[in-house]
Design brief:
273 residues, 7 strands, five-stranded antiparallel beta sheet, alpha+beta
């Protein structure tokens, strides 16, 4: 994966953004909820951290926790380099400083502000850190969960963000069993389009999805999760708009399918009035 050195100092320029929070509609007909979201979205291609900040963007949200974590980990990386202990510290300190309370459908901003996290927002944070410290990794999307596989010295290590204790899985037999539990069956279809990605596997049913996603696609899945919240609240137009953004970031069948369903429901709702 392309190395990303996050240039966080330039985030301060967003303090001069216009305070107007009126929605901005660009030519591609994507409707942004605020100018802040639009600015984060546009900068996010170069700095994925900001792309994760774009969902339910809060201009006043502090980056203090994120910078504090970076300062701690930078110090350890500068002393040891790409070492297994740095990887362990990356995982453990993320839980200590960012991942406080598991709550399904918690955005990246919820994590920074309140310590609430789910597998998408937490995996996003871990992936950004792994990029920064040049670890070889992949983010894996499954039916309703996201996790990370790090290849370190030729061996796979699982980073299961929802487990503060035991979530860094290193034993080869346990890694193999974990991966096997998520292995996809090409004959199986995704059971629900409007079920969020959030929790580890809790049943033994077959899986339809097991694929690697990059940081931009993972940001698309965060928009997908947010759209599901709107969809389940029967706010179908808002759901459709979030899914348009998700598709721009990740051209996925599940996102496209839910978008078609949201638009159908929006039309039915409008016609019944």
């Amino acid at each position: 994966m392309k190395k990303v050195f996050l240039t966080y100092l330039f985030i301060s320029v967003f303090g001069s953004l216009a305070n107007a929070q009126d929605a901005v509609i660009p030519s591609e007909e994507i409707r942004f909820e605020s100018n802040t979201e639009k600015e984060f979205w546009e900068a996010g291609r170069e700095n994925p951290y900001l792309l994760f900040r774009a969902v339910r963007a809060e201009q006043s949200l502090s980056d203090e926790k994120w910078f504090g974590l970076l300062a701690d980990l930078d110090d350890k990386y500068n002393k040891k380099g790409k070492h297994i202990n740095v990887l362990r510290q990356l995982f453990e300190k993320s839980h200590q400083q960012l991942f406080k309370t598991y709550e399904q459908h918690s955005t990246f901003n919820d994590m920074l502000e309140q310590g609430k996290f789910d597998c998408v927002s937490a995996s996003a944070a871990l992936a950004l850190l792994l990029d920064r410290y040049q670890f070889d990794y992949k983010v894996v999307e499954t039916d309703y969960h996201v996790f990370i596989v790090v290849n370190f010295e030729g061996k796979d290590i699982i980073l299961e963000s929802t487990l503060p204790i035991g979530g860094m899985i290193t034993a080869p037999s346990e890694v193999a069993a974990y991966l096997e539990s998520y292995k996809a069956d090409n004959t199986v279809q995704l059971q629900s389009l409007n079920q969020r990605l959030g929790a580890p596997k809790i049943d033994l049913s077959d899986n339809a999805i097991f694929r690697k996603v990059d940081l931009i696609q993972l940001a698309g899945l965060q928009y997908y999760n947010d759209a599901i919240s709107h969809f389940n609240e029967q706010s179908f137009e808002q759901a459709s708009n979030q899914l348009k953004k998700a598709l721009k970031l990740y051209n996925s069948d599940r996102i496209d399918g839910l978008k078609a369903l949201a638009e159908e429901q929006a039309n039915l709702t409008a016609s019944s009035k």
